[in-house]
Design goal:
Jelly Rolls, 1% helix
Length: 401
């Protein structure tokens, strides 16, 4: 795993906890979803996080809290680059006298008691908002007004450090609960201009695989009808954040977004699946597990999952989507983050996959871990294909700041 940033914010709390029934989680609004916000905590599980040392956390009523005297941290499995981070927190009534939260991008989660870049005094719920660009926290603020039991004051001091461009996010501390942890990637650039197919090319080397019609509608949407077919970007990327909106104009339609493709080849890369149908009964999928150090096959296990044909947001043939989120005939968003061997995806802001490709490296993602850059590809699956895409944008995580 890449080294994490050393920038941090520590919140010193002198707060009284409200009743749990006042602390119901806020899910993303339709506008937040359309704007690209994603949830880092779903209110129910720690999916998308991993604990360091003996760190132990509990979940209740949509809130996340460390157990008393726990050490270590809870760290996201996905690394991000430029982003806005927002979360709400509150002190626990039965917590220790010295209540603190450490929001850090440091692998060691430094205590730094002598550094207090953000201090909050007051009661009730507070919302902290960070803006991170490259390795630096360039803006930090706390809002208390308007939240339950709001009140108090805050002062902030952004942190600047030298560190890798992409980093994981860690939570540590004691005596608090958090909720509504969400992130908005920054620095994405349009891949589709809404007017024509500039920057894209249709795969036409094999007539049998070039039957899809790729057009731009009067509304400025990219339309894919019929199939099979493959529309590829001219640009190529390896590590990135990809966000887009998609709508399937029919029942149980199949498509996908391919990435790290082999240039010039037909639909040959990793595939973020599009298949909104929920299975009528649990489907069985065989998952291969490889050793992260030797990259040798360790085991195969069978899991049951309600997603049909891996499900929207799945990494097709690798890991199914853990939830069926999108619906046919409705616009949904998809976010894909590829960072080294790790790949994660969100549908309508809800994380559905977090997968590390520990297979041996290979030029072909079908046969092993492909880390090289390649085009983004939109799939025309079959004669029933009828989809629209819009707001396709990408942030290159390899760009130097």
């Amino acid at each position: 795993m890449h080294r994490l940033l050393s920038a941090l914010l520590m919140l010193s709390l002198a707060l009284s906890c409200r009743a749990a029934d006042e602390a119901k989680p806020e899910m993303l609004t339709p506008k937040e979803i359309a704007d690209g916000w994603i949830l880092l905590f779903d209110g129910e599980t720690t999916f998308g996080w991993k604990a360091t040392n003996d760190s132990r956390w509990t979940i209740a009523d949509g809130m996340l809290a460390p157990l008393a005297k726990t050490t270590g941290a809870l760290v996201t499995t996905t690394a991000f680059n430029d982003y806005e981070l927002s979360m709400e927190y509150q002190a626990k009534e039965d917590g220790p006298p010295a209540k603190r939260i450490l929001i850090s991008t440091d692998a060691q989660v430094r205590k730094a008691e002598d550094e207090m870049p953000l201090r909050v005094m007051g009661s009730g719920w507070h919302r902290v908002h960070l803006t991170v660009k490259g390795a630096n926290i360039v803006e930090a603020s706390v809002e208390s007004k308007g939240l339950l039991g709001g009140g108090g004051t805050a002062w902030v001091r952004p942190q600047k450090t030298s560190a890798p461009a992409s980093s994981h996010i860690a939570l540590a501390g004691n005596g608090f609960v958090v909720r509504n942890i969400k992130l908005k990637p920054l620095g994405t650039k349009p891949l589709f201009n809404g007017k024509d197919l500039t920057g894209w090319k249709k795969f036409e080397s094999e007539p049998k695989r070039a039957k899809s019609q790729f057009t731009v509608t009067k509304e400025g949407w990219l339309s894919i009808k019929n199939g099979p077919g493959d529309l590829q970007t001219i640009g190529q990327w390896s590590d990135f954040v990809l966000q887009l909106e998609c709508r399937t104009n029919g029942d149980n339609l199949n498509s996908g977004i391919f990435f790290r493709c082999i240039p010039g080849e037909y639909q040959n890369g990793y595939e973020a699946q599009i298949q909104n149908r929920k299975a009528k009964e649990p489907k069985k999928y065989t998952i291969q597990e490889f050793d992260p150090k030797t990259h040798e096959l360790k085991s195969k296990k069978t899991i049951e999952n309600w997603s049909q044909d891996y499900g929207t947001g799945a990494i097709y043939r690798r890991i199914p989507a853990r939830r069926s989120v999108a619906k046919d005939r409705e616009w949904f968003t998809m976010t894909v983050v590829a960072h080294g061997r790790h790949i994660a995806s969100w549908v309508n802001g809800i994380q559905v996959t977090s997968w590390t490709d520990n297979r041996p490296e290979n030029e072909n993602a079908r046969n092993g871990c492909r880390l090289k850059k390649g085009p983004i590809s939109l799939q025309g699956h079959d004669p029933t294909t009828d989809l629209n895409f819009r707001n396709i944008r990408l942030a290159d995580l390899t760009e130097k700041k």
